[in-house]
Amino acid sequence: MKKQVKVKPNSKQQRITEEVDGTLTVHLKSPPVDGKANAEMIELLAKKYGIPKANISIRAGLSSKMKLVEIEI
Asked: What is one term from the GO cellular component aspect held by the record (predicted)?
């Protein structure tokens, strides 16, 4: 399944919210430096869906706030 993900780095809390259109908004504690925010996002999504981190990949937007993420369930 593919999901649009909006990333908000440097947040006070980690959380994932799903919008009405199916887009996920992911609030991360990590700064957007050296891929730390991407790694934290993958970890949070893996916990949410109960799958290994290897089943989640970023298809587009590696250095953008809007990402296209593929999740293999």
From this structure: cytoplasm
What is the C-alpha to C-alpha distance for residues 55 and 1, in angstroms, rounded to an integer? 11
In this predicted structure, the answer to whether residue 10 has a pLDDT above a threshold of 90 is yes
Parent domain of 55 = 2-71
Strand order across the 15-18 sheet: 15-18, 24-27, 2-8, 66-71, 56-60
- If DSSP codes are grouped into helix, strand and coil, which group holds residue 22? coil
Instruction: Output the domain CATH number for residue 32.
Output: 3.30.1200.10
- The encoded tokens of residue 60 equal 């587009």
Give burial (CB, 10 Å; 0-12/13-18/19+) of 56. buried
In total, how many domains does the chain have?
1
pTM: 0.93
